[in-house]
From TrEMBL:
Belongs to the MnmG family. TrmFO subfamily. It catalyses: uridine(54) in tRNA + (6R)-5,10-methylene-5,6,7,8-tetrahydrofolate + NADPH + H(+) = 5-methyluridine(54) in tRNA + (6S)-5,6,7,8-tetrahydrofolate + NADP(+); uridine(54) in tRNA + (6R)-5,10-methylene-5,6,7,8-tetrahydrofolate + NADH + H(+) = 5-methyluridine(54) in tRNA + (6S)-5,6,7,8-tetrahydrofolate + NAD(+). Its cofactor is FAD. GO terms for cellular component: cytosol. It comes from the Bacteria. It is found in: Cytoplasm. GO terms for molecular function: flavin adenine dinucleotide binding; tRNA (uracil(54)-C5)-methyltransferase activity, 5,10-methylenetetrahydrofolate-dependent. Keywords: Cytoplasm, FAD, Flavoprotein, Methyltransferase, NAD, NADP, Transferase, tRNA processing. This is Methylenetetrahydrofolate--tRNA-(uracil-5-)-methyltransferase TrmFO. FAD binds at residues 9-14. It comes from Rubellimicrobium roseum.
Amino acid sequence: MSNAIHIIGGGMAGVEAAWACARAGVPAVIHEMRPKVGTFAHRTGDLAEMVCSNSFRSDDHEQNAVGLLHWEMRAAGSLVMEMAARHRLPAGGALAVDRDAFSRDVTAAIRSNPLISVVEGEMTTLPKDGSWIVATGPLTSGALAESIRAATGAEQLAFFDAIAPIVHADTIDMSVAWRQSRYDKGETEEERTAYINCPMTKEQYEAFIDAMLAAEKTEFHEGETAGYFDGCLPVEVMAERGRETLRFGPMKPVGLTNAHQPDVKPHAVVQLRRDNALGTLYNIVGFQTKMKYGAQTSVFKMIPGLENASFARLGGIHRNTFINSPTLLDSQMRLKAHPWLRFAGQITGVEGYVESAAMGMLAGRLAAAEARGEALPPVPATTAVGALVSHITGGADAKSFQPMNVNFGLFPPLPEARGGRRGRAERYKGYTDRAKADWSAWLSGMVARAAE
């Protein structure tokens, strides 16, 4: 495959990049270091393994920017979205999946595609020529990270991601906990009861906060500093920012009614979301943590309903790597200093599974078009994909650049849109309607050019 697009990394961005190349008729080679070289966070050698949450977040494509991104990716033939639909779990308005079945089927689809091959083994240096997409994600190996730093001429930027614990469902006390999605969201009874809720009184909440703050935490290595991404804060770091922070975050009690005591309003609620299709595993929503294992067990068993819980996996913490994309990348996602290298996924400074996959999909399309001697027009910044790529390739302030989820704040304003909270629903619907029209037109233009 001398004319192939080579992709370093087989995560969300890597598989989408390869899939996009293959759909364009261009061969692709994924270079994945696992299972030969493992990481502390991965458990398998499968591609697109989900190591943190099992959720792609909101699937509302009319009122939520993440849901809009789902819609755009589906319209473009996303492999990740196809497999997510196949292995979807009840999660209210969110798109959650059975993580093991999801990654197994992604891997099978990639390996069975005649235009895609997978080479197992670690890449320790950046290539000097060819056509490459670097999609190594947050756990870029040390040797390759050093090579990236040398190629970019900039200091590596880093923040820390934390992993939430997973509980065996049959060890949750359902005489205390109850099943309900917030605000009873969902079209079916299964969706409306997708979460397990554990209520806390004010006294229990205060004791829980005290224990979390006093718990022994993972220490950082010398020279490392914790530059957390606000969208994925460890639960104890949120508590350190104020005792009420969690009640307005993952432990907010609004939209929930205790089925056992409907007349008693909980002071705080811990939610658990199904983690596999069998419903035997649940992850504690928003409870990423850097507490040591022994401390986690004792602290999390203070949650009403989890006093006798058995943990399939405890939480963890890892360093995350990203480049200063607004300075380093051009509009085609190429490294300005070495244009045979494209970057995609979390390493570019987008945050989240779906954002990473979307940037991989776009990088694959751009690389395939270049291989075919074509030039794609810019993706409209009015779309979710376009808003993200515009942000990382120049829209963000390079001096304060930090990982970013897709959100309507990245979109060009709507003319004459009503401001404030009262106009929000109409404004968001305006954003999504405009994005769908512009994305569909952009995709139609690609199809027309391919037919010429």
